Amino acid sequence: MNQTVLGILQEFDLDTYRPIVPRSLNLGNALPPRAGNLVKVVTGMRRSGKSYRLFQEMDALLEAGVPAEAICYFNFEDNRISPATPQTGDAVLEAFRYLAQQAGANLDGIYLFFDELQEMKQWGSWLRRIVDTTKATIYISGSSSKMLSTEISTEFRGRAIDFELLPFSFRERLTMTPDGAELLKGPHFSPRLGARMQAMFDEYLTRGGFPAAQGLPTSQAIALLQSYVQRVVTRDVVERHDIARPRVAAALARRLMGLNGKQISLRKIENDLRSAGIATGRAYLADLLAYFEEAYLVFQVKEFSLSLSEKSTTRPKIYAVDPGIALASSRAGACERGQRLEDAVYLELRRRHPSMRDGGISMLHTKQHGYEIDFVVGDALEQEAFRLIQVTESMEDEKTAQRELRALWEALDETGLEEGLLLVGSGHETIYENNGRRIVQASAWKWLLDDSETGM
Question: Which domains does the chain have, with CATH numbers?
């Protein structure tokens, strides 16, 4: 028996991680253990809370009466078992059954929680064998968006379902405060409470939602968030994809953080890096960008075209996985509050529309004047827009107000939609009406707290 694996299993104590802050990501009811079960996969960037989401599920099983001896948790990122192999996985199950037997447990079915399983070589084929031969309910987590496509498509087509976990939303962040339940009662807030919520929202846009960054002094939070980016560069990009020029990867990551909420040009980034003495090429940068997106550090939002025959040449926008990590990891002044506000809205749209296929959240430029709409929620493949959303820091400036409104009015006219949403970082709420159509101007932080199905 592998004594290292046995020791790791004996060390684990769920009580050590309590209290567990509940996450809003719903994994559905736990499936009864059986061979051939559907595997539930929680994916997201490193340190976004995937382990604690597994702990939350384990807690629910214990409360439902599942004996602790029937639940196995193992983190394959533990450096004591590196490099993890299928033999390591077999050793985990052997040691788990041994401990259950020692405890006198008579197990009819087991619950397996495998954290960061992508660290195991050939993990897809190993897990498929376990699924087919073990009466179990299985949850796994991983830091790659490709876990259910490129990497295990042949082994797990139709046999697994993934759930994307992002860092804390603004609503989840408020639940951590002592009076969080009271704060979330809304939707009507007194002027005093509204001012407090606005201040907390400002802090959220600065610190972000990574769990471990909450409560730290600002300097420590910045250092922590910077280390997260460095770890993604090193572990998920350079080592995972055998990148020969890590300096290019690190430089690109920093520039992407500063471009949060903006359109990107790989040609310009290439020229900037060359000017800084870093030789690279656009094709190489495009590969690195794809790897960063795979690791959940950034997301690309592309143009929503209203004609299947049109091929958009519009440059995509880039959004960071968290507004705080973007601010901490970009050059001073490169990631302004308005960019982070837009980022927070985009991330919330991802949370509220998890079942949408690629292109479900897009940007739009109107045909007539090329006005930009920040977000179109809809089916890009079917060319059907459901909702138009514009985000701005404030509507106090008259030129800004005219720009945002004219873009929405023109987009509503071209899409045939009757209502648009204008989210403001600060300022009053109102409704604009014109020729049977209307634009609802709402506070961004109130919209982020809306826990209805669509939040719109």
Answer: 3-165 (3.40.50.300), 191-449 (no CATH)
**pLDDT for the residue 53:** 98
Residue 313 pLDDT level (bands cut at 50, 70, 90): low
Which residue in this structure is represented by tokens 């939609």?
A: 417
Distance from C-alpha of 119 to C-alpha of 183, rounded to nearest angstrom: 40
Token reading at 56? 């939350």
pTM: 0.94
**Model confidence band, residue 94 (pLDDT cutoffs 50, 70, 90):** very high
Q: Using a CB cutoff of 8 Å and minimum separation of 24, what contacts does 241-247 make?
A: 241/287, 241/291, 243/288, 243/291, 245/280, 245/284, 247/278
Query: In percent, how much of the chain has pLDDT > 90?
Result: 77
